[in-house]
Design a protein that fits this description.
The protein is α/β, with parallel strands linked by helices. The chain folds into two domains: 44 residues; 169 residues, L,D-transpeptidase catalytic domain-like, CATH 2.40.440.10. 28% of the residues lie in helices and 26% in strands.
């Protein structure tokens, strides 16, 4: 770096040398100033790295899906708490790879991957009064399933009666794009793991016994879950 003394000493040089020196000074100052701006920009970027990276990651995972039957829109990730973004985590379990564990107390669903790892999905879970636990299994699977409200729901919510004969699959159907039906001892529990397009429901108790994943997460889980897969519902 050129110090003030060096700049003052330039007056003792001949006039022919001054333009070159001034040019050199300007170039060095421009470089230093430009470097400071660049470093400052990097610093500012670093300050926003956690949130920005989380949103970039979420945007990739939850972008639009051109499904063959109904195009699935992107999730508004600004409405999704970053802690519920799908990721691989450490999860010690003696259960076989592929087993699904629903943790309603923390609003997560885990798929055991083995070697102490699991895929973790953010979820919505049953609301107070509808929580339950136990061992179940996937009795059947469906894409764009028809939704038929159980008689208990119709009694509680008479407005659901219009769908007593079944609501066809589609973007507005409560079961969404993919559904895993939970069974115990050969009988349907009337509960499912289903797809939701509502990011604001994730991390909340909102259902009458079912567990919901964002559609893009449900697509991932559905493809890797065969019928007869064990599903464990932990106590809340």
């Amino acid at each position: 770096m050129i110090m003030d003394g060096e700049i003052a000493g330039a007056g003792e040089m001949d006039d022919a040398a001054l333009p070159g020196l001034r040019s050199e000074l300007l170039n060095r100052r421009s470089f230093l100033f430009g470097s400071a701006v660049s470093l400052g920009a990097l610093g500012l970027a670093g300050c926003a790295t956690t949130d920005d990276m989380a949103r970039m990651e979420a945007a990739k995972l939850y972008g639009p899906v051109p499904d063959k039957k109904f195009p699935i829109p992107a999730v508004d990730v600004a409405k999704l708490d970053p802690k519920y973004v799908r990721r691989t985590v450490r999860y010690d379990s003696k259960e076989a790879p592929g087993t699904i564990i629903i943790d309603p107390a923390n609003y997560y669903v885990y798929r055991i991957e083995g070697e102490g790892n699991a895929t973790r999905y953010g979820a919505n879970v049953p609301r107070k009064g509808f929580l339950w636990n136990g061992d179940t299994y996937v009795g059947r699977k469906a894409e764009w399933a028809t939704w038929t409200p159980p008689k208990e729901m119709i009694e509680r919510q008479p407005e659901a009666r219009k769908y007593a004969g079944g609501m066809p699959g589609g973007l507005d159907n409560p079961l969404g794009a993919r559904t895993l039906y939970l069974y115990q001892n050969g009988k349907y529990t009337v509960c499912t793991i289903y797809a939701t397009s509502d990011p604001e429901s994730i991390g909340k108790g909102v259902t009458s016994g079912c567990t919901g994943l964002l559609t893009q997460d449900m697509l991932d889980l559905y493809e890797r879950t065969p019928v007869k897969t064990k599903v464990i519902l932990l106590p809340a």
